[in-house]
Design goal:
Layout (H helix, E strand, L loop, with lengths): L3 E4 L4 H12 L4 E5 L14 E4 L5 H7 L5 E4 L10 H21 L4 E5 L35 H23 L2 E7 L1 E3 L8 H9 L4 E3 L5 E2 L1 E3 H13 L5 E6 L5 E2 H12 L5 E3 L1 H17 L10 H6 L9 H7 L7 H14 L4
Length: 343
Amino acid sequence: MDKVMITGATGFIGSHIVREFLRHDVPVGCLVRKQSDTTNIDGLDLEIRYGDIRDLSSLEKAFTGYGAVIHAAAFVRDWGEYALFRDINIGGTLNVLAACLANNIRKVIMTGSCASYGEENSQTVKTESDPFNPHYPYFLDGLFPSGMNHYRDTKALATREAAAFARKGGMNLTILEPVWVFGEREYSTGFFEYLTSIREGLFAVPGSRINRFHVIYAPDCARAYWCAYNNQPPGVHRILVGNRKAEKMNRIFSTFVKYAGFKSPLLLPKWAAYPVALAIELFHIVFKRENPPFLSRARVNMFYDNIEYSVKKAEDLLGFRAEIPLEKAIAKTVSWYKRNDFL
């Protein structure tokens, strides 16, 4: 098999991809910055090569000898300056593809985002044929841009530009677009923060009992990359990856709370939560706080919006189907937090 270089391997999703490929005895290399925390991949049988996706020359050197690249590195936050999102998510992605071309690597799988299609409240199940619609029109967004939009916008632009680059260079590029991912080693995409907040005494949270939310368990998501590696179609393709259907968001969070052994919090209506979140977010923006606020316009809206995507293309083209039942996946995730003394 081709030796596979993985960017973003020390991160949440990347570390699961590494384990999935090692499980299949594929020789794996990991692109790591010298200052990176490698805890998530320590002790694994892999090759470390140092580089930074913002430094093209380091990538050209690091990719030497590899036959395929999985690009999972990104700046994934809902807070920060647009320039940093742009330089990593767009510039870094184009550097990865340029380094692949320089090393005659034509087999590339990269991580896009379902957010490219929009994460606004919608009763429509979105598919890969839907248009780009990443920017959420938050209240006062023109005056106070949302960091979540910085992420969405740059991931959508990265997808557009990567697809154009790959077509021009004659590369096979599969862009996997996961829905919301949860699992072991997740600390900042929502679920772990939700549990720790409740543990620390939060008794009321934004929330609805009717909206659906699309998720996938990280080991299942990693298996989608394995399927894409084995069954990669020629040319450029965008493919949504997630559980076969979206679930009621309240059921997802309630299941996390149940396995954590906590009491479910009260659900606040949006009219009560949104003004508080807006005030907190504006305070952080005006005073240029580096850390994100606990509540923001983006975080509150996610608790009420109906967000669903079709995963049929992943089944038809890659032969991928999420296999681990939601409740079992949540139980395994919470058990890992407890075993490692995070809860």
